[in-house]
């Protein structure tokens, strides 16, 4: 009796019956929507096309140029299923099974009904195919050549000349499809002049890739450099005295260099316009004191290594040093006095200098030089040698003196 009464009480509970009726209504509505819902057709816009590169990659092919395509897709299905579809819920495939060689290929589009929710049917795609360019990727490095365009005018004004044109970068890396890369003949840094120059010119210019017809019509190539700084030195011809430079000179000879004569003593040189007015002499070369001795005092410098003007007929400059009063002494240097830079603590053996050390100076200065004033150092930190091998290592030979120097170059034999 109590159970029947309790059930009867539940039936007469208005709030409980209202809640039960609401839940039952939702269940009935869902059942009707799912089973009786009408079909509808809708269009999903901007669906991204998927390009499967599995087959092309087997032939070394990649996509160049446009690789993102979007289409509008019309789908049909029950309203509750397709009303919430988004572009990323649909997969459209570009068929690449037949792509086996380079070129522009027309790929047919189809829907992938195995992707995501497939309780709908794709009835139309806004386009049936897409055109995609495939090729084998290639990267080459090319030298950049300066290219001055001066239509109808001279590059420099009359009385001036151009020096060697300089570029801030001398090479460019070019990446792209092999078909296009193979058509590139050269890379140029092109500057168009509006008027002839009478002073140095520097400018940021584009790096262009040219084919055999001088055209730059490449659609898919890229470069790691787009611009370079191109500098055109402008020169003027001037006749000036010839002079000489020294290096590794002892202290006394820095302030009082050796006397010398140069033949010719004057000549015509191409001088930068910025240095023209203040240039009264031009150095034809540098002489290292290590190459100067009482028996070696004549040196030649070739015209080809100098900015000699076309107005000159000089082929070489002959320098004759005045070595009057100089003498030389020979010293035998023992191997146990050779200082060795050996950071890796190699177990080495030094065989000694390949020849006697020659010290040059005046007779009076040489009288005070002893073996203790001579230092020989070698560096074996970077030598490539294995156990049992012997190799020659350059030796740095110096003398402690303000008016004497070491003549020649020297080596020692080092073995492990």
Comma- or semicolon-separated keywords:
416 residues, mainly beta, 45% strand, 7 helices, seven-stranded mixed beta sheet
Q: What would you note in describing this structure?
A:
The protein has 416 residues and is mainly β. A 7-stranded mixed β-sheet has the order 2-7-5-4-1-3-6. A 7-stranded mixed β-sheet has the order 10-15-13-12-8-11-14. It has 7 helices and 29 strands.
Gyration radius (Cα, Å) is 43 Å
The overall strand count is 29
Distance between the termini: 113 Å
Q: Which outline best applies?
A: elongated
Spatial sequence of strands, sheet with the most strands? 2-7-5-4-1-3-6
Question: How is this structure best summarized?
Answer:
With 416 residues, the chain is mainly beta. The chain contains 7 helices and 29 strands. It has a 7-stranded mixed sheet with strand order 2-7-5-4-1-3-6. It has a 7-stranded mixed sheet with strand order 10-15-13-12-8-11-14. It has a 5-stranded mixed sheet with strand order 23-26-27-29-24, with no helix packed on it.
